[in-house]
Q: What sequence folds into this?
């Protein structure tokens, strides 16, 4: 197995163009498990850990840009204000060791329907920046990035460079159901972001379909039905919450597997949808009162 170790982004793109079969390696928390268990035997590994710019993040013009090598620990410690939904999800990933090594870029590269960064990125309306040496940069809306089970929208010569999302201008929440509180793959998960200036909401559903999903009908419902100018402290109606939960559950496309049944997952998605909307709404009307 060849081990390619570029030190700049240009060298990394050249290596991927020349050796499209080379498997990118960032934190290695998915790749090394697959190699150790014999799931993969790549002819070459493309180690991206020396490409320093991938570990950087920045905020400009209301947009937060995370290099593909930004770890969950960095998101938790430094980005709770800009991307609270992603920071909440990052807190639930694995263990401290996995959060130190594991990256949002690696989660996107793996494109598992259970990956915890996907629902908040969907809810925030994130865009994935991918690049190849020969065709340059493509900006892919995250909802179009997941083509199938563990199938990201990457050409063989492309690498993920960064992911961009607007700095939160409203409340964001993430909720995850697992069989215990740490080191657990989601049975299912849900993220919600309110975008009050645009009078709309974003959603993301994890581990309840072949890919991470948005509940677009539920988003349209909230855009129509939420009273964005409600007075401080105004509660949400029980009917609105119930309908939102039903629409989110209907958007899921779960299966029965070892972690849970399809029926349980649909039920849990509805519960998480109602809970996250209640939390977000309380912040929204509370914030308006402040
Ligand atoms: C014990 C344990 C617990 C875990 N718990 C969780 C959890 O709770 N939630 C969760 O979501 N995940 C969990 N994971 C899975 C894993 O940690 C995450 O998916 C993590 O985000 C992977 O990031 P990484 O940097 O380690 O990726 P890597 O393993 O380096 O790469 C993952 C995939 O992305 C590709 N890739 C990496 N970088 C790029 C790039 N720049 N361009 C193109 N492709 C790229 C790789 O080729 C590979 O296919 C866990 C893993 C372990 C071992």
A:
């Amino acid at each position: 197995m060849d081990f390619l170790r570029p030190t700049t982004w240009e060298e990394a793109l050249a290596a991927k163009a020349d050796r499209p079969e080379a498997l990118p390696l960032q934190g290695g928390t998915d790749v090394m498990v697959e190699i150790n268990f014999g799931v993969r035997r790549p002819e070459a590994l493309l180690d991206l850990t020396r490409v320093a710019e991938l570990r950087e993040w920045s905020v400009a013009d209301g947009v937060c840009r995370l290099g593909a090598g930004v770890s969950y620990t960095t998101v938790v410690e430094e980005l709770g204000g800009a991307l609270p939904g992603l920071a909440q999800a990052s807190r639930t990933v694995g263990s401290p060791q996995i959060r130190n090594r594991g990256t949002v870029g690696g989660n996107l590269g793996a494109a598992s329907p259970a990956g915890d960064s996907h629902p908040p990125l969907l809810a925030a309306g994130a865009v994935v920046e991918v690049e190849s040496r020969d065709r340059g940069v493509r900006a892919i809306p995250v909802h179009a990035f997941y083509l199938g089970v563990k199938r990201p929208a990457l050409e063989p010569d492309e690498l993920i460079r960064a992911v961009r999302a607007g700095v939160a201008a409203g409340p964001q929440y993430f909720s995850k159901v697992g069989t215990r509180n740490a080191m657990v793959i989601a049975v299912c998960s849900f993220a919600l972001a309110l975008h009050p200036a645009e009078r709309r909401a974003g959603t993301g559903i994890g581990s309840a379909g072949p890919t991470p999903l948005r509940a677009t009908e539920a988003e349209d419902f909230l855009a129509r039905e939420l009273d964005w100018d409600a007075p401080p402290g105004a509660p949400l109606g029980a009917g609105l919450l119930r309908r939102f939960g039903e629409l989110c559950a209907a958007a899921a496309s779960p299966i029965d597997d070892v972690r849970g049944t399809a029926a349980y997952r649909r039920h849990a998605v509805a519960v998480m949808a109602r809970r996250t909307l209640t939390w977000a709404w309380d912040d929204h009307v509370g914030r308006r009162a402040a």
